[in-house]
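Posting this for the archive.
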Amino acid sequence: MVDQLLTAGIAAAAGVAVYLGAATRVVKQYERGIVFRFGRLRKGVRPPGLAMIIPVADRLHKVNLQIVTLPVPAQEGITRDNVTVRVDAVVYFKVVDPASALIAVEDYRFAVSQMAQTSLRSIIGKSDLDDLLSNREKLNQGLELMIDSPAMGWGVQIDRVEIKDVSLPETMKRSMARQAEADRERRARLINADAELQASHKLAEAAEVMSDQPAALQLRLLQTVIAVAAEKNSTLVLPFPVELLRFLERATPTPTPPATTAPPEPLPATNPPEPLPAAAGPEPLPAPGPAAPPPDGTAAPTAEAPPPLDLAGPPLDEPRPDLAD
């Protein structure tokens, strides 16, 4: 009798242990338990710790409430300014309603991933290249709102969305590099011009001081000589004093320009002589006619005509008395 009771007690204890083993579930701290009894959702969420269920009728599903890091594959698109880019991102989300995450959507991870890819392509088409490169905070907020709107019905809350990398074509990278180089060169030239302007003002002030005190220029010259002589050079360049040049310039007499004379009056134009007719011998010159009266109306003195010149000479066959000897 005692043996039978002992055997029955052991059997009952074994049955209870098996039942407890089948009915007991452990829910971790970062999880929540959802119970379905005969396929219907039981009200209430099982907190972390031991959870008791009916082994045959109930099914316990555990939902992770930790923040999930979901990488979004790189999406290729054309921006609003017609530039082809490849953009990838990462989505941080967590489950806030375990029951909706199990009932409202089949696989909330896959649903969030597809929604993130679609929203990322939409953001690429609505944005400029400069916004993708320098204004990512605004794009991240817009992308978060686009994903969070449908995800709230799934019991999922989007915690943060970040655009990781923007891949550009090589031609666009070279163009941007040239643009950045040109901008840097422009800024360098502006800085150099500003420095030259400030230096010119200071030099003008220094020149005014040195003009008031000529000894300052000599001291400056000596400082320059000392600075050059400090180096171990075999040649010493000594600048020529400007004051000495000015002294020589004042000492040099200024040449007086030559007196200008009135140009000679032009001679009256004369008619060219008429060609003489061809003849065997020279003809006697014609007698001059009466002279024209002077303009004051007085009578001009008359002159006798000279006798005609004998230009023919003796004949060639007659001997000349001066050559006879």
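The radius of gyration is 62 Å. Residues 278-282, 295-300 have pLDDT under 50 and may be disordered.
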